[in-house]
Write a structure and sequence with these properties.
By secondary structure, the chain is α+β, with helices and mostly antiparallel strands. The chain folds into three domains: about 80 residues, GIY-YIG endonuclease (3-Layer(aba) Sandwich), CATH 3.40.1440.10; about 55 residues, no CATH class; about 45 residues, no CATH class. It contains ten helices and seven strands. The longest helix is centred in the middle third of the chain and has 15 residues. The chain starts with a strand and ends in a 12-residue tail after the last helix.
């Protein structure tokens, strides 16, 4: 049977620690190590220490307790008493602002640049204040680069070519609509070699010939 209780992960150099509780402490510790090895631990500060030197971290069982409610009370008491730095690094906790704007960092939880794993697109997206799903959609569906997808103010240039006719700049569709010419008529004219300024301005009834 696994041990149940409250545990701590301690940085032997600074004595900073992470406090948690589990009904299976050994399993929880192995899960911590696995997440740290794969660089996807929710505590960015703890991850930073592991990346520097895994041997700096030691695992300590503070107290054994099978009763879940007592464990949770003990954990809460220790968190309030010691305010462990690694628990404060739960900076991946997030609050939904709106359905469209996605997630934002909790006040006081914003990570410094050194705490963001450069290989984690999810962490970089959260640091930029953009929903991770939005970033992935931009990359996969819109074909954006990572830097473009992570820029909240980035706007991709229109794919349709712009033309200027009689002082107005726009696509063939926009110019044709402005001049009252059917779009397909203007497009067909342009593809057949008729100059753009004639293709999008000459009424259909008049007809157009290439000179």
């Amino acid at each position: 049977m696994y041990k149940a209780g409250v545990y701590a992960i301690i940085d032997k150099e600074t004595n900073d620690m992470y406090i948690g509780q589990s009904s299976a402490i050994e399993v929880r510790w192995n899960r911590h190590k696995n997440e740290l090895k794969h660089r996807r631990h929710h505590s960015l500060r703890l991850q930073k220490v592991w990346d520097a030197d895994p041997e700096r971290l030691k695992f300590v069982v503070i107290a054994e307790c099978r009763d879940k409610e007592k464990r949770q009370k003990m954990e809460k008491h220790l968190l309030q008493k010691f305010r462990p730095k690694f628990n404060k690094a739960h900076t991946l906790r997030k609050v939904r602002r709106t359905r469209t704007k996605g997630w934002r960092w909790l006040p006081g939880c914003e990570p410094s640049s050194g705490e963001i794993n450069p290989n984690s697109l999810r962490q970089r997206a959260l640091a930029a204040g953009i929903n991770y799903g939005t970033v992935m959609s931009r990359i996969k569906k819109a074909g954006m680069t990572e830097s473009e997808a992570l820029d909240p103010n980035f706007k991709r240039k229109p794919k349709s070519k712009q033309y200027t006719v009689n002082g107005m700049t726009g696509t063939i569709y926009q110019l044709a609509k402005h001049n009252g010419v059917p779009y397909h008529t203007a497009l067909s004219r342009f593809k057949s070699g008729i100059p753009i300024d004639i293709a999008v301005t000459r009424p259909k009834a008049q007809g157009v010939k290439i000179t």
